[in-house]
Structures are given as C-alpha cells and as structure tokens.
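Study this chain:
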Amino acid sequence: MPQLSPDLLDQLCSLVAQLREESAGFEENHADAQLWYNRGYANGILRGLQRLLAQESPCGQALDDESLLQGHEVMAWGKAYRHGERTGEQETYEISGMK
C-alpha cells in the first residue's frame, strides 16, 4: 500500500492552515461564497487525510463542527462549502495516489 510522503503531508497541512486563516469568520459572511468554498475545501482535505492516515485530527486540526452548516445547506454559500469539501477530499485522494 502506498504511503503519503512527509513532504506532501506538510504541503497539505500548510494549505489547510492557510485556507482556514483566510476564511476565518466565513460563517458570518454569507455574501462571499468563495470564503465558504475555501473553508469547505480545507475541511475536505482534512476529511481525506483523516481517512488515509486513520487519524482523528490530521495536521493537528479537527474537522469543522457540522452545526456550523445547519440552516445553510440549501443556500448558495452552504452549497459552495459542500462543493469545496467534496473537491478537497477528492483531490487529496488523487494527489496522494491512495484511496
């Protein structure tokens, strides 16, 4: 079974940290769907790493609390979050070569 290289893991963890920093306060900014997408993308990377590495908190980061999305799922910003999340997770699997 292939393993995730330490360099790739470091890059993914750095990207998660950067996206989370840039999207801080996303839940209060409904006008900027890109913030929601970016936050979802970071969460998707973490979800992928969580499964690939069998770790609860890869990169020392926990997944976003699902309650943040309650009531927003059908709105454009909530959909942007979920799309980013799916894309981040899928691309994590693709670039790692693992599934």
